[in-house]
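User: Could you go from structure to sequence for me? I need the amino acid at each position, not a summary. Structure tokens:
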């Protein structure tokens, strides 16, 4: 096959050509900048080869913010296309590609890395650990995720984007209906990224179970660590299902296995079941860490300990259990019968009970508290009423008979966004602002942050609340256009205005980062929020070894007790600290995975075989490598502590 025929875009447009030019210019600018400022060595030593959980967390964060921009552009294009009847901004094919990539990018490549960014940075600090249990495996987790994300994102300029929806249902995702390589990108890129997520899940479970500071029992862990622990338990149970499902889908597309086809013994509904066996727990993989973030923020800025700690832990465990028992509510209308629908309708509504417990606990935490309305607290307070609307409409969708009216309409789109945006995006922005001084040693500007919050909170409701009405009136989702006679035009135009407001809000966040980086004071304390958990007991920014002396934990809020009740926290003397060495192997394996995935997408079997051998060669290299790490001397620790203590006063 001719080179250009193999890699050509099947449905080119001026926008795609402009994107190609923009990508090329960006790559040239990055390479030129690194060369001009002589930063290649720094980039390799400090970032590409790092195994430090804090730097890996920051790289996850940068990736998530880039994908937030990418997915946000898709969202704006969709709202612009449906803003007026019979719009011709996008044709049907491009609209299919846009809503497919929007869903995948936002769920898999934005929300997931945002969560793992905060877990990577915060969890080892909250439990008083030096690092995660397997630092090099942690680096491999990031690089496989990152290369999977990059592989997926080149699809719209090399070979064409997937167009079968973010759920990629068969037979639409089969070769008969999706003939370009776009769905191959979907299957293989998510598979590569999913490997990284599964590795992270195992790593964090071991870290939390085995590396807690002396005295920190499970029931003395901070709530964010609890939610991270349960989240990663869900990851370990759910992601193997996704791995197998994507493998079977890849076999269908590349080898004609007829597993999900409607002929030759295939079963297309098998894909729907397997996808949502992973997909609904995935919702709680996103939501539970957000609940942990809100718990930390409500407690800190209400100046009260978290109300109902044990009930909060119990509700998290119950939610994780029920998350695996509700998957069929995603296809009530697909013919599984009234008995099955009734069972899954009951489990769907039952999962609202432990979620409601958490909301009442947060409200009671604020009750009689001395509330301080910081930017993180505004996001946390704003979350409660908006998420409640999402929860109530979720119960409506959970009624199987009523779902025949709501299913596949804009009502469902509104419900989903009323849970995910306040439940994940608000939480990520709150957590980012809250832990920013710990990450970078300065605070984001509060005034700009509050402007951004109000733009986002108000514009979100302007964008998505009208969809409840258009959905109830019959507007189907995934429709790229509609006639003026439907009457959907005014409310869709209002949604587009709200989307523009959201764009302004996120632009303000970008400006806040720029402004604060230039002008914010670096002379802040290690505990600028007067917080309660252990990560605030070390310096800002955090030294490589996290804590010069391992903390001794006596209660759920040991750091608060240390500050307010003079309970001892650091006992003993400074000793040399053992730390892992950096390694370039995880980055190299990630690059090989990228080439491997690209080869499979285009059925280039010789490069695929070579890269498969190379991956196993790298694993074998690690098996035989002798790397005992290194020690940080007492003198170096004392010098670092002296320098950071002076900077944080």
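Assistant: Here is the amino acid at each position, in order:
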């Amino acid at each position: 096959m001719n080179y250009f025929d193999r890699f050509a875009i099947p449905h080119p447009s001026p926008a795609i050509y402009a994107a190609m030019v923009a990508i090329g210019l960006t790559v040239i600018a990055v390479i030129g900048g690194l060369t001009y400022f002589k930063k290649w060595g720094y980039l390799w030593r400090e970032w590409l080869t790092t195994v430090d959980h804090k730097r890996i967390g920051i790289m996850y964060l940068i990736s998530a913010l880039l994908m937030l921009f990418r997915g946000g552009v898709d969202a704006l294009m969709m709202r612009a296309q449906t803003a007026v009847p019979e719009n011709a901004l996008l044709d049907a094919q491009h609209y299919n590609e846009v809503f497919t990539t929007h869903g995948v990018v936002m769920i898999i490549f934005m929300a997931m890395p945002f969560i793992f960014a905060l877990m990577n940075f915060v969890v080892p600090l909250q439990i008083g650990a030096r690092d995660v249990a397997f630092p090099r495996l942690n680096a491999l987790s990031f690089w496989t995720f990152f290369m999977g994300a990059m592989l997926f994102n080149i699809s719209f300029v090399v070979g064409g984007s997937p167009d079968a929806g973010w759920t990629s249902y068969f037979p639409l995702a089969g070769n008969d209906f999706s003939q370009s390589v776009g769905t191959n990108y979907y299957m293989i890129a998510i598979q590569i990224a999913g490997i990284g997520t599964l590795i992270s899940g195992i790593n964090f479970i071991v870290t939390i179970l085995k590396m807690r500071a002396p005295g920190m029992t499970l029931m003395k862990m901070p709530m964010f660590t609890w939610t991270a622990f349960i989240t990663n338990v869900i990851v370990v149970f759910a992601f193997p299902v996704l791995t197998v499902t994507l493998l079977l889908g890849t076999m269908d597309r590349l080898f004609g296995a007829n597993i999900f086809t409607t002929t030759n013994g295939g079963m297309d509904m098998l894909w729907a079941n397997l996808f949502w066996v992973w997909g609904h727990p995935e919702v709680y993989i996103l939501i539970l860490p957000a609940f942990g973030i809100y718990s930390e923020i409500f407690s800190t800025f209400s100046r009260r300990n978290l109300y109902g700690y044990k009930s909060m832990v119990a509700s998290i465990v119950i939610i994780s259990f029920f998350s695996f028992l509700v998957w069929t509510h995603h296809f009530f209308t697909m013919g599984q019968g009234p008995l099955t629908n009734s069972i899954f309708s009951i489990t769907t509504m039952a999962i609202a009970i432990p979620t409601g417990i958490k909301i009442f606990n947060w409200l009671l935490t604020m009750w009689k508290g001395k509330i301080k309305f910081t930017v993180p607290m505004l996001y946390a307070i704003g979350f409660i009423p908006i998420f409640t609307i999402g929860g109530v409409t979720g119960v409506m969708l959970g009624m199987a008979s009523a779902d025949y009216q709501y299913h596949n309409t804009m009502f469902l789109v509104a419900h989903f966004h009323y849970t995910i945006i306040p439940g994940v995006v608000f939480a990520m922005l709150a957590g980012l602002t809250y832990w920013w001084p710990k990450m970078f040693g300065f605070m984001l500007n509060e005034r700009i942050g509050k402007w951004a919050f109000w733009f986002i909170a108000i514009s979100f409701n302007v964008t998505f609340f009208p969809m409840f009405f258009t959905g109830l009136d019959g507007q189907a989702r995934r429709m790229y256009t509609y006639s003026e006679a439907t009457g959907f035009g005014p409310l869709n135009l209002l949604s587009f205005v709200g989307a523009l407001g959201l764009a302004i809000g996120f632009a303000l966040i970008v400006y806040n980062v720029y402004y604060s980086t230039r002008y914010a004071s670096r002379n802040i304390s290690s505990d600028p929020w007067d917080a309660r958990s252990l990560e605030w007991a070390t310096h800002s920014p955090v030294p490589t070894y996290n804590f010069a002396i391992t903390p001794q934990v006596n209660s759920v809020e040991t750091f608060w007790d240390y500050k307010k009740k003079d309970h001892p926290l650091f006992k003993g003397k400074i000793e040399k600290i053992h730390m892992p060495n950096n390694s370039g192997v995880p980055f190299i394996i990630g690059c090989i995975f990228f080439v491997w995935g690209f080869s499979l997408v285009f059925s280039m079997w010789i490069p695929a075989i070579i890269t498969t051998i190379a991956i196993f060669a790298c694993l074998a290299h690690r098996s035989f490598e002798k790397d005992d790490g290194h020690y940080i001397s007492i003198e170096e620790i004392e010098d670092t502590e002296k320098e950071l203590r002076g900077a944080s006063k």
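One structural detail worth keeping in mind: Residues 332 and 400 are 6 Å apart (CA to CA).
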